[in-house]
From TrEMBL, chain A:
Transmembrane segments: 9-30, 100-122, 129-152, 172-190, 230-252, 272-298
UniProt cross-references to Pfam families, sorted A to Z: BPD_transp_1, BPD_transp_1_N
Entry GO terms, CC: plasma membrane
Keywords: Cell membrane, Membrane, Transmembrane, Transmembrane helix, Transport
Compartments reported by the entry: Cell membrane
Family: Belongs to the binding-protein-dependent transport system permease family.
Protein name from the UniProt record: ABC transporter permease
Entries under InterPro entries matching the protein: BPD_transp_1_N, MetI-like, MetI-like_sf
SUPFAM superfamilies cross-referenced by the UniProt entry: MetI-like (SSF161098)
UniProt source species: Paenibacillus zeisoli
Automatic annotation (TrEMBL), chain B:
Protein name as annotated: ABC transporter ATP-binding protein
Record's bilayer topology term: Peripheral membrane protein
Entry GO terms, CC: plasma membrane
Alphabetized SMART domains for the sequence: AAA
UniProt keyword Oxidoreductase, yes or no: no
Similarity remark: Belongs to the ABC transporter superfamily.
Domain (ABC transporter) ranges: 5-256
InterPro entries: AAA+_ATPase, ABC_Ni/Peptide_Import, ABC_transporter-like_ATP-bd, ABC_transporter-like_CS, Oligopep_ABC_C, P-loop_NTPase
Organism whose genome encodes this protein: Paenibacillus zeisoli
Cellular compartment(s): Cell membrane
Amino acid sequence: MVRYITSKFLYMLVSLLILITATFFLMKAIPGNPFMSEKQVPPQIRERLMEQYGLDKPVIVQYGQYLKNIAQGDFGISMKMQNKEVTGLITDTFGASLKLGLVAIVVSLVVGVLLGLLAALYHRRLIDNVAMVLAVLGIAVPSFVVASMLQFVFAQKAGIFNVMGFNGPLDYVLPVAALAAQPIAFIARLTRSSMLEVLHADYIKTARAKGLNWMTILFRHVVRNGILPVITYLGPMTANIITGSVVIEQIFGIGGLGKVFVSSISNRDYTLIMGVTIFYGVILMLARFLTDIAYVFVDPRIKLTNRKEG
Amino acid sequence: MESILEVKDLHVSFSVRGGEVKAVRGVNFTVGKGETVAIVGESGSGKSVTAQTIMRLIPSPPSKIKQGQVIFNGEDLLSKTNKQMEAIRGKDIGMIFQDPMTSLNPTIKVGKQITEGLIKHQNLSFAEAKTRGVEMLKLVGIKNAEARFNQYPHEFSGGMRQRVMIAIALACRPSLLIADEPTTALDVTIQAQIINVMKDMQERFGTSIIMITHDLGVVAGMADRVIVMYAGEVVETGTSMEIFKNPQHPYTRGLLRSLPRIDQRKDEPLVPIIGTPPDLIKPPVGCPFAARCDHAMKVCERIDPDPTHLSDTHMSRCWLQHPMAQEVQSS
Ligand SMILES: Nc1ncnc2c1ncn2[C@@H]1O[C@H](COP(=O)(O)OP(=O)(O)O)[C@@H](O)[C@H]1O
Ligand code: SF4
Ligand SMILES: [Mg+2]
């Protein structure tokens, strides 16, 4: 167990290092920098700026310095907003994104699992068919389209919600719905097929042969096992919601990290881009790490496989 | 002998797209107290459907019990409500299945899977149920029972899991155990062990056993009586002695010929029964075995023979044994 967790943790650190390295050198490989763009900057000023950001040093030295700074939580200073630290920009805006993301994750899980379970229990009946049509739609339609439609129907036409802004709890509804639509669809399908499999499993027949009543069987044997595959989807779902939120925050005018990220790209604010990219990377990897660990706790078979290996 | 179970004229069908699969077509048999009855027959002959109908485990739809009675301890199980059946399953009738690798819930400790039934049927506390569960594990021959109690199914071999299944099925000391091909998925050496465990438990608790198998060899040392099923019908029944020493129905004889024997001579080949069972959506009007039978006569294709009783215990459904036909034959 400890071994398993340690190995997953090391794996995470290595992936992180690769991500940082790749991000760093990719940024270096892109021609140009923010001081070269639109406006002509006098050569002296440009040189001073280059010096200030360490861009005049050899790349490998810059890389070393960058790694060292990151280890101390310092992503450098924004190239566009020159009095702002990247770390500060991230921490200031991440709160809003985090709230939005967490709510979206919880909603996706609850609604997705419930929908999938109902579809499996009423296999090939009305609920199942409706749920699966919705799921196909949810998977096919990108979140920004869902967002715009929701905005149009419920904010613009019906006037139930604000079109923009992120202040009261009501302001969560539309962005969360837009973010959760796709994960809900995925989870519902995943849950449905896994519940169907469990419902037909031999051990359910064993449980019935013991004389347990259906509700006991449903909760103790069916749902518990049928939900396992959903845990593997937690990682990809986090990724989905993070990438989704970049666009959704823009659409609903939410001042979160996603919005910062988008503007950092259009500003070619390299330090900010790198900082946010790596920060997103850390979150994704953490999500994956936690998923792996969660799986061990719920599925005893995994422990054995690793005990045998180790 | 006092009978504990009587299956009377049982008909079970499945609705499928092409029509109605008549899986069980008028099955009759009884099981006495403490008796072991084997049901044998090729795959698809309706053994599992019969067994699961007794337990009322087959979902309906697609299945439908068209006709018949299953009298258990004097009461018809087919007229019980679901709730009433729950109180009988696991308590009065236990069941084990073919594949021990998939019959246990992989995410729940073995011990908990044994105690579940005990807690439900006997109102025991978990501690009491645990004592009983550990005791059951010991009885079915699992060493280190206390430690094994807290392990998961994947930490057990196939044979050990089948022992656990027996422990689960017998935990509440049911008076009837239905074992549906309990050894089919196991190695030959393990098969014998499982049979021995079942025999041992039967001696201890006086359980009646319905032992389902497609392999007559498995039942030889175990069954008091044998029921041979073919295409959803019982084609021959008799004591083990009668079936092994004096088989009458050509299908039973075919099954025995396809079985390897210890005293078999090298030049005496195993003879499999050629052909396949009939389509049960449109079962033949005559003897269902006619298409594969070496002795088939004209009458066989037209009329399904009635049971012929050769002794108090021996019955065969074949025109060859039919009193009317014998006259024709001998003349
Ligand atoms: N759920 C089902 N739907 C349709 N047909 C079924 C179903 N279960 C069993 N059958 C049919 O019933 C017949 C008897 O099956 P079964 O009792 O499982 O045979 P076996 O003797 O091998 O245990 C077979 O022809 C099988 O195809
Ligand atoms: S009734 Fe006829 S076809 Fe059927 S088993 Fe007897 S001899 Fe063969
Ligand atoms: Mg079967």
